[in-house]
Specification:
Number of strands: 12
Shape: globular
Structural class: alpha+beta
Oligomer: single chain
Length: about 425
């Protein structure tokens, strides 16, 4: 009876082993719907979601010329836009609704300060006090815009940021960069930040946007920086401030005004209703550049304008105004031609080992962090990482149990046979 029981256990173990191996092979997951072939996967006009922001063709924004996909009732794009590159987007969803040479690499001027702020703001508490030294102000380019930072004076970080956003002060940028680990370190951080945001046209040489050989960005990348800034309340607070007081000698202060004329209404430019920033710039090589965002009701439109060629007075502001007006009027009448969202991170294929299964999603997360950097993977990509890798760890509990039973049964049979041989006999029916 004992032999029969062991034999049956071994047979059951063998069956369990086969079943476990079959279950361990995951069924192929259904392919993601392709918006180009599956109507149910296509963006819905006017929909307010990240799904609606997905481009129908990711290559559209890399094409030359103007890209727009209008539906019946859509207003015509303004014809009086002479910028070398421009872009109109929905800041809430990230949908790009029209663009012209969006990825053309051009000098960004002070609009690059948006990337500087995204990089350094989280590391510098607003109420921190800093006594400025001469070395903090070293390396500022000749003819730079300055807010009036004086060596030997102590400033709050918040005041320095107002100097950056309102006066476009390169002196304030250099002091904050010194506090952030130095100019060289800050430039490296900015480059890394641009890559994490999917802004791959940008090459940073100076944190203030001053003309430097090889320093470039694009209308697309600047829109990405502007949109990321709009998600930061501190960034919005500084970029939407029209006037402020800046520390002067001893206890005195002096007034500064935002150089973004769509916000300040200076020099004959009418203020744009609902404007919430973001940043303007000018250098000899870049010409006039501007990232501007405005909110009307529940909709925020973000535009980038780089180097208008018309010669019109205040052309960068006039063209940004026309594009903002069109962006609001076109709501619900255009389909996206691209997205400001970072491209999804494709996680590496990991081998299914007992260690991976035992630790579940923790091991997968660790592997993704190692492959992409702890701050590199886009949240949406991490959220879908388990699905990309196959079945979740819990799906393997049953097959592992069956496989374990098979192993135990085989071991018992082996031990019994060895014992029988030592006693001079093999298994027989009784």
């Amino acid at each position: 009876m004992i032999i029969r029981s062991v034999t049956r256990s071994a047979l059951a173990g063998t069956v369990a082993l086969a079943a476990g191996l079959l279950v361990l092979v995951p069924a192929p997951s259904p392919a993601a719907a392709d918006p180009r072939t599956d109507p149910s996967a296509r963006p819905v006009q006017g929909a307010r979601s990240d799904r609606a922001a997905l481009p129908a063709d990711p290559a559209l924004l890399y094409g030359s010329g103007t890209q727009v996909r209008t539906a019946p009732g859509a207003p015509a794009l303004p014809s009086e836009v002479s910028a070398l590159s421009w872009l109109v987007s929905d800041a809430d969803t990230g949908a790009v609704i029209a663009a012209h040479d969006a990825h053309r690499r051009l000098p960004p001027a002070s609009t690059l300060k948006t990337l500087f702020a995204l990089t350094a703001l989280p590391h510098l508490p607003a109420q921190t006090l800093h006594r400025v030294t001469s070395s903090d102000l070293a390396g500022i380019g000749e003819g730079s815009s300055l807010v009036g930072v004086v060596p030997g004076h102590t400033y709050r970080v918040a005041d320095l940021w107002r100097g950056v956003f309102l006066s476009s002060g390169n002196d304030a940028v250099h002091v904050l960069a010194a506090m952030n680990g130095g100019v060289e370190s800050t430039v490296s951080q900015m480059q890394r930040k641009a890559q994490l945001l999917g802004a791959l046209d940008t090459h940073v040489v100076s944190p203030d946007g001053y003309d430097m050989p090889g320093q470039v960005s694009s209308a697309y990348d600047l829109a990405v920086f502007g949109r990321a800034g709009l998600a930061n309340p501190q960034f919005v607070g500084y970029s939407s401030t029209a006037d402020a007081q800046f520390p002067g000698d001893k206890t005195a202060t002096f007034g500064i005004q935002n150089t973004n004329r769509l916000l300040s209404g200076a020099d004959g430019v009418t203020r744009y209703p609902g404007l919430i920033g973001v940043k303007n710039g000018y250098t000899t090589n870049a010409g006039n550049t501007l990232v501007a965002a405005a909110r009307h009701g529940s909709r925020t439109v973000l535009v980038t304008v780089m180097n208008p060629q018309s010669g019109e007075s205040n052309a960068v502001y006039a063209e940004a105004r026309r594009l903002l007006d069109w962006g609001f009027a076109a709501a619900g009448h255009v389909r996206p031609v691209g997205s400001l969202q970072p491209a999804p991170v494709v996680p590496p294929k990991l081998p299914t080992t007992p260690d991976t299964v035992r630790t579940g999603t923790g091991a997968l997360q660790k592997a993704l962090d190692t492959a992409h950097g702890a701050h590199g993977a886009h949240p949406a990509a991490l959220a879908g990482a388990d699905a990309a890798e196959g079945e979740p760890a819990s799906a393997y509990i049953l097959p592992l149990a069956l496989t374990g039973s098979a192993a135990l049964g085989s071991i018992a049979l082996f031990v019994f046979r060895r014992t029988g041989r030592r006693r001079g006999g093999g298994p027989t029916d009784q």
